[in-house]
Each structure stands twice: as C-alpha cells, then as structure tokens.
C-alpha cells in the first residue's frame, strides 16, 4: 500500500482497547503518531513504526486525523481544549474523532469550539470491549458532520464492523449511553440467573449453554456468564469506567426529565464494587457480590 496517498493518523490513548485499535490502523498502512500519558504503553506500537509525541498539541500538528480514546470527561476536555490540547495544535481542515465514552453535552461543545477553527470533531464511542478491539469488530456510534464522517469511514472500518452516523454532535455519546444502560441491567440479570441455578442444585454452565441459544441469549450471558462461573474477572472493561458511564447516563437522563430505576439500582451495586476495592476488575465481577450475598 502506498502510504503517501493515505492521511497521517494521530492516536491518543493506548490502553486496553486503544492499543489494539491503533495496531489495526498501522497494519492497514496508515502512518501513525501516538501519545499516551504512560509512554511505556506505546512501546509495542513504536516497534511497529509509530512515532511518539510529548503532548496532544504536538501530535496534532503532525496529523490529518486525530483519534482519542481516553478516560473521563475531564480528560477529554483537557486533551481537546487545554493549553497543550488538540485544538491548540491541529491544522484547519483536520478531523478529530473522540472514541471515549463521555458527556453528550461536552461532545457538542468541543465540536462547536473546533468548528470555529475549521476543524471537525466527531464523537464516536465504541462497544465491544477488549475482544471487539482486538478482532476489529467494534460497534462504533458516531455523532457529527456527515462529510467528516464520510472522510474517516475507511479508518473507522479498520477498527469496527458496525458503524453508524446517528445525528449531530453528541449523538454518538447518547447512543453509547443507551448501550451502557442495557448492559448494566443485563449483567444484574446474568448474575441473578447464575446464582439461582447454583442454589437450585443445577450445573450453571449447562444451564447457560441451554438458555444462551434461546431468548435470554446475548453477549453478556454467553461471554461474561462463563467467565463469572470460572472466576475470571480480568478486565476487558474496568468497573471504575463502567461506573463513570452509568453516572453519565443518569446525569443525561435527569437533564431530560427521565427516570431509569433499573440503572439507579445498577449504580448502587457497582458503587459497592468500587467501595470494596474492585474498581479495576472487569465490570462482570459484579457477580462476586452476588456470590458473597453482599447485594
């Protein structure tokens, strides 16, 4: 592939998911520039040819398209709007894609600020966790300008296989919060189903195999359920980040005058996980509270 015809990509945030996502971009032949607060987490990408930079601003000066997948809304605000942020360094005509799960209102504000500098910013959070990132099978929910979306679509295809533009800036974040709302209550149901099976004397693994091909089937039951039974709570998506997402969804719902009682219960249980020192376990480790009868 002739890399001279391809846009230069900047990638900020090379954690559990970001590292795999960035690697797919390199393998597709795109020149890649990287930044992460912990430089050691970019080592494998640098070995593959990525170029390291010392700040988001410095990286942005070298990139046509900048991708971010970081931690919290406050991190997004700093990385985009800070003195050493993306908008301080990005050139007119460039496009930024924030794939962090963040605040819909913040996404709209960043897009508006960027537009004044002739920079397009899309909010494009993802679903699929570490496995989806590794296999380039993420679902990508996008909000923002349609022309910018069309330009970056081939790059998004390097990372995902279900990609949709859902509306103006902030729409991708709203869609991702819908995703997290569904997962939060579903995981509670999976935990309760497994515990019920075990208490009734059934082989929970056999039960999951049967019901997983029926109406109860889905990723949370069929993927996370067996991990719960085995005691494998390694994080594909950490509980502390899931609590952040639940909080964003509750805040956004309250702004719209919407009550979500199932999500409120999930927030209580997941906060209990954090209080018990399980913040960096996978979100499916909620099962441990059920197993210990601590819910």
Please provide the count of β strands. Answer: 9
Biggest sheet strand order reads 3-2-1-4-5-6
Number of helices: 14
What structural class results from the helix and strand content? alpha/beta
Global geometry? globular
Task: Tell me the fraction of residues in β-strands, as a range.
Answer: 5-15%
What are the low-pLDDT stretches, counting only 5+ consecutive residues below 50? Answer: none
Task: Kindly summarize this structure in a few lines.
The chain has helices at residues 18-27, 43-47, 56-61, 73-81, 86-89, 104-115, 129-134, 146-156, 171-199, 204-211, 219-230, 239-255, 261-275, 287-291, and strands spanning 9-12, 32-35, 51-52, 65-68, 95-98, 120-123, 126-127, 138-142, 160-165. It has 295 residues and is an alpha/beta fold.
